[in-house]
Design a protein that fits this description.
This protein has one domain: Orthogonal Bundle (ABC transporter involved in vitamin B12 uptake, BtuC), CATH 1.10.3470. It has eleven helices and four strands. Strands 1-2 form a two-stranded antiparallel ribbon. It is globular. The relative contact order is 0.21.
Length: 293
């Protein structure tokens, strides 16, 4: 059996691919967080609960309404994004002129309420979501299900499409300007409050999309958001809180690093992201792609 750095090649290559799949989830989730913080300066601790809501909405659409996965992939982010818009209009908009801590505490409380309600209704063991794309590829060193193979390119399209809209279009220019000088943007006839609300809804929809994409891979559980949100916050901090590209690159990269850690240092696989975060914060507090202020 071929060895790479003393490790069987099939094991190493298999973990690389699984790391990319996990990195796709990290990238979309951290992208949503980066959009919300970068555009609105809100630390959205409800992001994990919104990720879970996306997965559960897809599950309910399948089991209660008979809608297939591909319908849910489009509809569930719209539903959860609309719920995020209501949350922003009713509560969050009153916190923008206050310290970041107020937004963090409110969204943390909202996440606890949502997760508690779903845990009461569905329990903690989770619900199974059927694989929407049976079959797979025999790569020689592993069997790769078609669906998992699709997740990575789909995540890349979503991530770089979002980056292009925010960084290279007029709409993105208005979004960035609205956070820095809302009075000037209003002078151009732009409704800044509506723009901010839609931005928050879009960030929430990204979290829900990640949840729908994760549903066939893992159990749909009320705790799935709580299990991933701390790691996703670490990803955003490493990439840079105000950097869209940092969230994308760091999300995929740390998914791969986490996969490799399971091969070389299995006992560190759950903490390697936080070790990297500590090192990055020590050397570059703004993150790898963040801008120093």
């Amino acid at each position: 059996m071929d060895l790479i750095f003393g490790v069987p090649a099939p094991l190493l290559l298999g973990q690389l691919i699984l790391g990319l799949v996990n990195g796709a989830t990290y990238a979309i989730l951290s992208l949503g967080l980066a959009v919300i913080f970068g555009m609105l300066n809100v630390i959205n601790f409800a992001h994990g609960a919104q990720y879970m809501l996306g997965a559960f909405t897809a599950w309910m659409m399948a089991n209660w309404l008979g809608l297939g996965f591909w319908y849910a992939l489009f509809l569930a982010p719209l539903v959860v994004g609309a719920a995020g818009i209501v949350l922003e209009r009713v509560f969050l908009r009153h916190l923008y002129d206050k310290d970041h801590l107020f937004g963090l505490l409110f969204t943390f409380g909202a996440a606890m309420v949502v997760e508690g309600l779903f845990r009461y209704q569905f329990g903690s063991t989770g619900q199974r979501y059927a694989n929407p794309l049976p079959g797979g590829l025999q790569l020689g060193f592993m069997f790769l299900p078609y669906y998992r193979a699709l997740v990575v390119p789909a995540a890349l399209v979503v991530c770089f499409g979002t980056w292009f809209v925010i960084e290279r279009t007029q709409l993105g220019a208005y979004l960035r300007a609205a956070t820095e000088d809302p009075v000037l943007v209003r002078a151009f006839g732009i409704n800044v409050p509506v723009l901010i609300t839609l931005t928050y809804g879009f960030g929430v929809a990204l979290a829900a999309l990640a949840g729908v994409m994760a549903a066939p891979i893992q159990n749909v559980s009320p705790l799935m958001g709580a299990n991933v949100i701390i790691a996703v916050f670490a990803v955003v901090v490493i990439g840079g809180l105000n950097s869209i590209m940092g969230a994308i690159v760091t999300g995929f990269s740390l998914g791969v690093i986490e996969g490799l850690a399971k091969v070389f240092l299995p006992e560190t696989s759950d903490t390697v992201i936080f070790v990297i975060m500590a090192i990055v914060l020590f050397l570059r507090p703004a993150g790898l792609f963040g801008q120093e202020k």
